[in-house]
Write a structure and sequence with these properties.
The protein is built from ten helices and 13 strands. The protein is α/β, with parallel strands linked by helices. The chain folds into two domains: 16-132 and 230-267, D-Maltodextrin-Binding Protein, domain 2 (3-Layer(aba) Sandwich); 136-223, D-Maltodextrin-Binding Protein, domain 2. It has a five-stranded mixed sheet, sandwiched between helices. A hairpin with a 6-residue loop joins strand 3 (59-62) and strand 4 (69-71). The protein binds arginine. Arginine (ARG) is lined by residues 52, 54-55, 58-59, 96, 113-116, 160, 163-164, 187, 205, 230.
Length: 272
């Protein structure tokens, strides 16, 4: 599977030509290349986006159509930006915990994964402006009486490995006697563990929890009030020239109302 690196310098274009014309890697759908290929600057190259497609409505694998295509809010944004900038788009799916290492190893040009631009991550990657805000919630089976973080004492709490929710859970565990962490790679696994009773609760962002709650009526959630909004931004390898280009298009998407439309499409009216 090829993962091509974005190179801004024109001198590098010749070197890239072979790679650019070859078949696409796993995870990319025909739709991605068509969408970007139509643009006036088509032929500029391919951008590889890495994501963790376990996070509807940001990104998930569409199993309904049989195409296994990765779809979601982030994907729509990425497609639009790639098209505007004249690139084709290739999407590669991996565990959330592997996304920043993939950028550092230049195995991807950018990451969109509902990722929050934390100070710690900023040591290793650059971020675009924030394009969406959400909140943290505790998700748990209705049979567990949980009204807030104080009730997590003595409970096992699932979180996605490498996420800010894991960081938050670690902080809570320090001041909550008997609270244990269960870090897992995929949100689906967390939901399965909750349903089977192997964990008592999980910390998941509200917009993502909403979808899982709708499909699993035995689960419910409560917001963690003291935690501020959890923003999402695009991540890039340090000093990538794409950061400013993405910010420009993100700004245009905000002012044209397109971002609002996509938010309504994926999070429902009034979600923001
Ligand atoms: N916003 C949180 C973070 O940055 C969670 C993101 C998880 N994303 C995903 N695609 N699973 O840590």
């Amino acid at each position: 599977m090829k993962r091509r690196r974005f190179l801004a310098s024109t001198a590098a274009v010749a070197l890239l030509t072979v790679g650019l014309t070859s078949a696409c890697g796993g995870g990319q759908s025909a739709g991605d290349s068509e969408a970007a290929g139509d643009s006036e600057a088509a032929g500029k190259g391919t951008l590889t986006m890495a994501t963790s497609a376990d996070y509807p409505p940001y990104e998930s694998v569409d199993t309904t159509s049989g195409s296994e295509e990765i779809v979601g809010f982030d994907v729509d944004i990425a497609r639009h930006i790639a098209k505007e900038l004249g690139y084709e788009l290739e999407i590669t799916n991996m565990d959330f915990n592997g996304l920043i290492p993939a950028l550092q190893a230049d195995r991807a040009d950018f990451v969109m994964a509902g990722m929050t631009p934390t100070e710690e991550r900023k040591q290793n990657v650059d971020f675009s402006d924030i394009y969406y805000d959400a909140k943290q919630t505790i998700v748990f089976p209705k049979s567990n009486a949980i009204t807030g973080p104080d009730d997590l004492g003595g409970k096992t709490v699932g979180v996605q490995l490498g996420s800010i929710q894991e960081g938050l859970a670690k902080d809570l565990a320090e001041k909550t006697p008997g609270m244990k962490l269960s870090p897992l790679n995929r949100i689906n696994e967390i939901v399965q563990e909750l349903k089977s009773g192997r964990i008592d609760a999980a910390i998941i962002e509200d917009t993502v929890a909403k979808g899982f709650l709708a499909n699993n009526p035995e689960l419910t959630s409560v917001e963690i009030p003291e935690e501020g909004p959890v923003g999402s931004a695009v991540a890039f390898p340090k000093d990538s020239e794409l950061t400013s280009e993405f910010n420009r298009v993100l700004g245009e998407m905000e002012s044209s109302g397109m971002m609002e439309e996509l938010i309504n499409k994926w999070f429902g009216d009034g979600a923001k």
